[in-house]
Structure prediction request, 114 residues.
Amino acid sequence: MSRHASGLMAWLIQRASAVYLALFMGYLLIHFIFDAPATHAALVAWIKQPLIASGLLLWIPLLLAHAWVGIRDVLLDYVHPLGLRLSLLMLFGFIFIASGLWLFKAIITAGVTA
Prediction:
């Protein structure tokens, strides 16, 4: 794959994920302003709804992909020593993977145990 195609793919990932993230976060903001769950049980019941759970499960990888492309581009542009750049990329990669797994577990556990 050429460098141009790689840049185009990163651009498309950023734009497509940004649209979904903005729409879903807008929905969450409106929902929690006007109809916030009063208890933890109500929050879990809300998360267990299939559309909400699906939306959250789609939101996680899109958020992580959006963050990855952004941080990767910043590191590639501004961190010039190769060893430091690779170390930071690995650190952020680990943080994003661990965060994603933790979020998936939290959402799936909320739907299974409550």
In short: The two ends are 46 Å apart (CA to CA). The mean pLDDT is 89.
